[in-house]
Sequence to fold (136 residues):
Amino acid sequence: MVTVQQAGESYANYLASVAGDAGNVIVDPGDGEAIAPLVSGKLALTVASGVETRTLAAPTFVGQRLDVCLDVNSGTSVAITVARTLDSVGSTVLTFTTEGSGCRLVAISTGLLEGSPDFEWRVFLCEGSSAAPAVS
Fold:
């Protein structure tokens, strides 16, 4: 079955409808705080004022998914800095400026780091109602 985003439907609601096993809600910790999901899930960001930041821990297993969307923007933007990289060129920051914009992150294995499995997030999909989140 193919699910299509309906006209006027927020990206957050669309992601929730297709989340599948990523149906767990990850709570937005607020400005300057850390996001450390142990399971796949969805995270609806709320910006209270100005420019806000979050940090995102490395994933805990291959295939872990995190659907992130900017649900409420009463400020300017929110930048999420990841513990490792988001792509092959070394990008580490996702910046959201538009309500309804979102990204799906998926965990990959990058081999071993100090004898333990090493996982990183990769941007699988970025979409926006008027502007997609920026990866830098």
Notes: The chain has a mean pLDDT of 83.
